[in-house]
Amino acid sequence: MAAALALSQRGRGRTAPNPNVGCVIVADGRVVGRGWTQPGGRPHAEAMALAQAGDRARGATCYVTLEPCAHDSARGPACADLLIAAGVGQVVVAIGDPDPRTDGLGIARLRDAGIAVEPGVLAEQARGAMAGFLTRRAQGRPFVTLKLATSLDGRIALPSGESRWITGPQARAHAHLERARNEAILVGRGTWEIDRPTLDVRLPGLEARSPRVLVLSSSGTLRRPDDIAALENVDHLLVEGGAETAAAFVRAGLVDRLLLYRAPILLGAGKPALGDLGLVSLASAHGRWRLSDTQMLGSDRVEVYAAN
């Protein structure tokens, strides 16, 4: 299942409105098929893995990160039916599909066909891997990552506005990889007009993964952070600045993940990373974030926090 979860990340940021699913088929102790949801949502991970496995899928075990779909579509048959037709012997599922067209029905159909189903394997990791799809289903909006690159004293630029570069090349490459994992990237109007950021992915081989660019503006399509709920085919949104836009998303409770890059420099007087958060007491600032990962990127450190 861990391998299937890793495969699912290959599709993250490109499959909306479908989930980014991973699938591995194992026969006689060997992997005979691998699949992940393709750009635009089709083919599904199971269909890709079954096509690779061919006849070797008969009697094999299928590991899939999300319950196989049970509804037919003009774009392809139900994955539960494909697995039954292929004659797999067992299906191991990480989590159920909240889509009402499948919810529980995919597993039931497999069991009715005599296929053993084991659900709940690495469920927590799967929920993290498909956070965009699940957040859209549960809350009606994209999963939001807020990215900040600061000095040790929390500054994003000198008083003059100079900000290139706060972090080093390894941290910037990591940030570009993060961009490639989102369908859209958002900045405030001030950042857009003053800095004119390109907001693309500049990593060899991943240039085509550049996300859609959005600008938060009082006169634009997106005027408030909660307008992101209306975005079509965007399940993962990366917010990159500036300080007032970042603060607006935090105040609205719309940040699910905080990506904080810290450079080992001190800037003193300069531009802060965040505007006013509307806090009324220091106590209200505590308990909102949980550290989920940290690593060194050259001389810089990246810290990942999940919202509580």
TrEMBL record:
Q: Which residues form the CMP/dCMP-type deaminase domain?
A: 1-118
Q: Which UniProt keywords apply?
A: Multifunctional enzyme, NADP, Oxidoreductase, Riboflavin biosynthesis
- Enzyme Commission number: 1.1.1.193, 3.5.4.26
**What pathway annotation does it carry?**
Cofactor biosynthesis; riboflavin biosynthesis; 5-amino-6-(D-ribitylamino)uracil from GTP: step 2/4; Cofactor biosynthesis; riboflavin biosynthesis; 5-amino-6-(D-ribitylamino)uracil from GTP: step 3/4
**Record keyword Oxidoreductase present:** yes
Name the Gene Ontology biological process terms.
riboflavin biosynthetic process
Q: Which Pfam families match?
A: dCMP_cyt_deam_1 (PF00383), RibD_C (PF01872)
| Keyword tRNA processing tagged | no
Kindly give the SUPFAM superfamilies that the UniProt entry links to this protein.
Answer: Cytidine deaminase-like (SSF53927), Dihydrofolate reductase-like (SSF53597)
Q: In the record, what terms sit under GO molecular function? A: 5-amino-6-(5-phosphoribosylamino)uracil reductase activity; diaminohydroxyphosphoribosylaminopyrimidine deaminase activity
Briefly state the protein's biological role.
Converts 2,5-diamino-6-(ribosylamino)-4(3h)-pyrimidinone 5'-phosphate into 5-amino-6-(ribosylamino)-2,4(1h,3h)-pyrimidinedione 5'-phosphate.
Q: Which family does it belong to?
A: In the N-terminal section; belongs to the cytidine and deoxycytidylate deaminase family.
Protein name as annotated:
Riboflavin biosynthesis protein RibD
Q: Which organism is it from?
A: Sphingomonas hengshuiensis
